[in-house]
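tool_call: predict_structure(chain=1)
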Amino acid sequence: MNWISNYVRPKINSLFSRREVPENLWTKCPECGTMLFHRELAANLNVCTSCDHHMAISPRDRFTALFDGGIFTEVKVPDPVTDPLHFRDQKKYPERLKAAQKATGEKEAMLVAEGEIAKTPIVAVAQDFSFMAGSMGMYVGNAILAAAERAVKMKRPLVLFSAAGGARMQEGILSLMQMPRTTVAVQMLKEARLPYIVVLTHPTTGGVTASYAMLGDVQIAEPNALICFAGPRVIEQTIREKLPEGFQRAEYLLDHGMLDRVTHRKALREELVTILRMLTNQPPAIKGELTAQPAEA
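tool_result:
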């Protein structure tokens, strides 16, 4: 019995056992509950193919879809002091940073890059909500300043994709000071007469909304994105009244004049190309490349 139990039975079980399927092959849409195959979801720019719900997308994946051929160059951002307040809650602040870096593979909550979009050179900035909720700390302030300085130096438009839960509490008042710093960066672009376009994604809240996210020459939002300073739950608890349906969502803000456009993620690149070329006095983009014609004999 020992030979059968220890050798024969495990051998038979291994031959007929089901193969383990990796957990990351399927993603459940948080809006409609549809199970989406990861390749299909990535090809659709992390937009649900069933209900069109816009899920979070990493800055690198966004830039790959945005820039020509998916080619871009990262712009170096100065490193701030790591833990200026020696802040600690349940964990030390440096430990939270290391955990976020390991989970996302990114250095911080914002990525700055430059490249071409339909042969129009631009500088682009994107926040990563999966990195400590995209919170605005000193690095984020440095990133926006670095992007603005690069845009002014190269005389290029700046496109910013916001996604944040507000200021980073672990940096206290130093985090709040990024609001005037980033406002100065936007003013640098305006003085250089360079376009500054903001794309607000879900969610954009707190001090980010109160500063650089709402200072664009053109304000675009993705469908159903939550855009606010204080969240709807906080407002309801404060005023003790039920808020209107869709309050603080992109479509509601568009109807009330706070946004210029609400654009589907798959149509966003083409719309950015049109706006950028209009603001920089360029002719409309050519949709296709013309091939050289053979010379007539």
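agent: The chain has a mean pLDDT of 90. Proceeding to next step.
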